[in-house]
Amino acid sequence: MLQSVRYSCSQGNLITNPIKRLFAMKRASKSKETSESSKKSKNDSQEVSSDPASASSFSKTTSTTSNSLYSTFQENRISCALDISQFQFKKKRVRILSNVKEVDDCRGPIVYWMSRDMRVQDNWAFLYAQLLALKLELPLVVVFCLVPKFLNATIRHYKFLLGGLEEVAAECENLKIPFQLLMGPAKDRVPQFVEKNGVAAVVCDFAPLRVPMQWVEDVKNNLADTVPLIQVDAHNVVPVWVASDKQEYGARTIRNKINTKLGEFLTEFPPVVEHKYKLKKNLDSVDWKKAYNSLECDMSVDAVPGVNPGYKAACAQLENFCRRIRLFGEKRNDPTVNALSGLSPWFHFGQISVQRCVLAVREYKGKHKESVEAFCEEAIVRRELADNFCYFNKNYDNLKGLHEWAAKTLNDHRKDKRTPCYSLEEFETCHTHDDLWNSAQIQLAKEGKMHGFLRMYWAKKILEWSESPEKALEIAILLNDKYSLDGRDPNGYVGCMWSIGGIHDQGWAERPIFGKIRYMNYQGCKRKFDVKAFVARYGGKVYNKK
Ligand SMILES: Cc1cc2nc3c(=O)[nH]c(=O)nc-3n(C[C@H](O)[C@H](O)[C@H](O)COP(=O)(O)OP(=O)(O)OC[C@H]3O[C@@H](n4cnc5c(N)ncnc54)[C@H](O)[C@@H]3O)c2cc1C
C-alpha cells in the first residue's frame, strides 16, 4: 500500500477552537507581562546610561537561569493543540523535492534531517516530520550531519553549534525521539543511514545558500527512488517560495507581499511531543568528544565568554530584550545603547524560531507600538528579503550579483585613488587611521557581533580603503564570517552587498570610489551617537599609515 505524502499535509482533526483558547491564554499572559514590565521600568532606565559599557546587546542573563518565557511558550503550544496531528498544517510550507511523492509500505522510521533549524520546538520541519510519522504510525529519528569545516566558520561557531545540538539531543531523548550526529557530508551520510535503517521518508529544512542547497540536491540524487525527500521552510515566517516568485528589488517591493500573508502564517505552534512509535533497534549514542575532535576549522577565534548557545539561552536573551523593548524604536541606531535584541546568533543557528520571537514581541504592541513595528520590519521583512535575494540570485556574494547601475558606477570609479589603502591584515588587526572603525572591528572580534548600525559604516569604509570593490567585498565577507557569531548567513551576504554594491538600495549623489553607492562618514556617525564613548569602550587607536 502506498500512502500519499500529501495526505499528511491536509487538515487534521482540529481540536475545538484552538485559536480561541490561544487568545484567552495570550490575554492572560499579556496582563501578567504588562504588570511585570511596569515593575521593571525603573531598571530599564539603566539601559540608556551614557556608560558605553552597556553597549553590548548580549544580555548578561544568557545563562539558562531565570527563564519564564521558556515555560510560557510551552503552555502556549499546548493551548494551541495537543500535538501536530490536531493542527491544520499549512501545505504551502512544504514541497516534495523527490520524484516519488508517496511513502512506500516499509516499516522504517521517518527521518528529520536537521540542518539550518537546530531546535526541537517551534520548528515546522520537525513538526511536519512528526505529523508524517504519526499519520503513518512510524518511528521518528532526527539526524544532523557534522562537516569538519564550513566556509569560514571557526571554533567559535562550532562550539555554538555543538552546544545547541547537545541541548537538542537531550530534548529529543526526553521525547523518545532518537537523535543521531552523523559525521561527514550529508550526501553520503543521509542516504547511508536511510538504507541501513529502511527509512520511509526524509524531511529536511531549507536554507537558500549555495552549499546547503547543494547538500539537499546531492541527498535527493543519492536517495533510493522509493524514498521521498520533503522540504519545509522552517526559518521564515512566510516560506520563501510563497513570499515571492522572483528576486525582489527591495524592502518596498516585498513588504506588502509578506505582510499580507502574516494573518495566514504568523500562528502559534503546536508542540513536538513524546513520540509513541518506537524504533525497534537502539542507535549509537552521540560521542560529543569525537565530534569536537573531528573538526578541522580555524581554532584561533574562540567562543565569546558569557554568550551561551541553545534554545534556553535564546529564551533568556529574548526575555532580556522584552524588558528593554521600549528602546528599540528610538535607539536602535545608537551603538552606545543596549537597544537591539542581540538575537541574531540564535536566529542564525536556528536555535530559536524568529516566528516565536515575533509572537512574543507583539505582546508589547499596545505599549511600545513603534518598537514592535520596527522589530517586525527587521526580523520579518528585512530578514526574509535577504533569504529572497540569496534564493533567487546565485551570485549573492559576488559583484556579478549587482544591479547594472551599481556594477557600472563601481566600474566607472575603479581607477579612483584609494588613500589610504589597507591590506586584509591591517583591517583584521584594527590598524586603520579611524578609531571608530578599529573599535567596531575590536567589538566584532571580542564579542562575536558588531552593532547593526556600525556594520554598515564598517563595510562601506572597507570599500573606500581597499584596492578594488571585489577585494573590499571579499574582505568584508571574510571578516564577518570569521568573527561574527551570526556570520555565513543570507543577512550577512546581503548586508555586505548592500553596503558595497547598493543591493536593495538606490543610487545617490556621485562621489569618488563609491560612485552612486550610498556613502557614510565619521562626521555623520558623530551626529548620530557619542562616537567618543564608543571608542573609549573598545579602545580603537589611530594608526597613521606611513
Ligand atoms: C555589513 C553587514 C553585515 C551583516 N552581517 C550579518 C550577518 O552576518 N548575520 C546577520 O544575521 N545579520 C547581518 N547583518 C544585518 C544586521 O546588521 C544584523 O542582523 C543585526 O545587527 C543583528 O543584530 P540583532 O539581532 O541585535 O538585530 P535586531 O536589530 O534586534 O533585529 C532583529 C533581527 O532582525 C533581523 N535584521 C535586523 N537587521 C537586518 C538587516 N539589515 N537585514 C536583514 N535582517 C536584519 C536579524 O535577523 C536580527 O536578528 C549585516 C549587516 C551589514 C550592514
From TrEMBL:
Keywords: DNA damage, DNA repair, DNA-binding, FAD, Flavoprotein, Lyase. It catalyses: cyclobutadipyrimidine (in DNA) = 2 pyrimidine residues (in DNA). The keyword Transferase does not apply. Residues 26-65 are annotated as: Disordered. One of its GO terms (molecular function) is DNA binding. Its EC number is 4.1.99.3. GO terms for biological process: photoreactive repair; UV protection. Residues 30-45 have a biased composition (Basic and acidic residues). It comes from the Eukaryota. It holds the Pfam family DNA_photolyase. SUPFAM superfamilies: Cryptochrome/photolyase FAD-binding domain (SSF48173), Cryptochrome/photolyase, N-terminal domain (SSF52425). Residues 46-65 have a biased composition (Low complexity). It is an enzyme of class 4 (lyase). Its cofactor is FAD. Residues 108-240 form the Photolyase/cryptochrome alpha/beta domain. PROSITE patterns: DNA_PHOTOLYASES_2_1, DNA_PHOTOLYASES_2_2, PHR_CRY_ALPHA_BETA. The keyword DNA damage applies. Involved in repair of UV radiation-induced DNA damage. Catalyzes the light-dependent monomerization (300-600 nm) of cyclobutyl pyrimidine dimers (in cis-syn configuration), which are formed between adjacent bases on the same DNA strand upon exposure to ultraviolet radiation. PANTHER family: DEOXYRIBODIPYRIMIDINE PHOTO-LYASE, DEOXYRIBODIPYRIMIDINE PHOTOLYASE. Belongs to the DNA photolyase class-2 family. This is Deoxyribodipyrimidine photo-lyase. The gene is 106080972.
